[in-house]
């Protein structure tokens, strides 16, 4: 076969196979961009979280380009059946290998869609408490009050009981204290209610003080107030720090267990 014949074969192949494939690629790329734009607009009108929207778009884009590649390959006469079969086997193998990682990713989808908490919420998850810093694809990150960063797998977060202390906007603060049986209960209760007069303490529901138990060594009381969620620890520490001094000023003894030993001389 001389050069002229080779050139004719190449030209015929280009005209019959390559040129339509190139046109198909151009049209396909434009179609993918159009589909992604429409999908982005559609997701923007829903109530999906921004991170979840990005994740959906990030998954759809390579899938669309993969389909375009298979269509172009078929147009060039390449048997894509074996490619699809191989891709299926590889997908299964990868799924088994990355089972935990995929579980975390699907857990991230669930959290971003259901929104049991958002960034900056103070939550308790699987025995860990802290402020939500990030809900990622694989991990939810909490910052604890002592400045530790805890990363919890999303699959564990979804399966765990979640307590959100921020979402309602307010929290109830209970301060437990004991006082001697010699102290007038009315004086103790009035003292506790007076301590509740703090700028952050809400008037509705109004503060409450009451007796919770008559113990072996003291009467047990509780001061119960409602505060904005962001002020919970501020009010808690302020009341706890002031309690002893206020009781001392009122002559109220905060008792503790005593052991009396009686010695009999024989």
Order of neighbouring strands in the sheet with most strands: 4-3-2-1-5
Largest sheet: 5 strands, antiparallel
Any idea of the CATH class of the largest domain? Mainly Alpha
Order of helices and strands: HHHHEEEEHEEHEEH
- CATH A-level architecture of the largest domain: Orthogonal Bundle
Could you please say which CATH topology of the largest domain applies here?
Helix Hairpins
Question: Beta-sheet strand percentage?
Answer: 15-25%
Total domains: 3
Describe the model.
The structure is a single chain. By secondary structure, this protein is an alpha+beta fold. The protein has 3 domains: 3-97, Orthogonal Bundle (Helix Hairpins); 116-164, SH3 type barrels; 170-249, 2-Layer Sandwich (Alpha-Beta Plaits). Helices cover 51% and strands 20% of the residues. It is built from 7 helices and 8 strands, in the order ααααββββαββαββα. The strands form 2 sheets. Strands 4-3-2-1-5 form a 5-stranded antiparallel β-sheet. The mean pLDDT is 81.
Give me the secondary-structure topology.
Layout: H1 3-44, H2 50-75, H3 81-97, H4 99-114, E1 122-125, E2 128-135, E3 139-143, E4 149-153, H5 154-159, E5 162-164, E6 170-179, H6 185-195, E7 208-214, E8 219-228, H7 232-249
Antiparallel strand pairs: 1-2, 1-5, 2-3, 3-4, 6-8, 7-8
Helix pairs in contact: 1-2
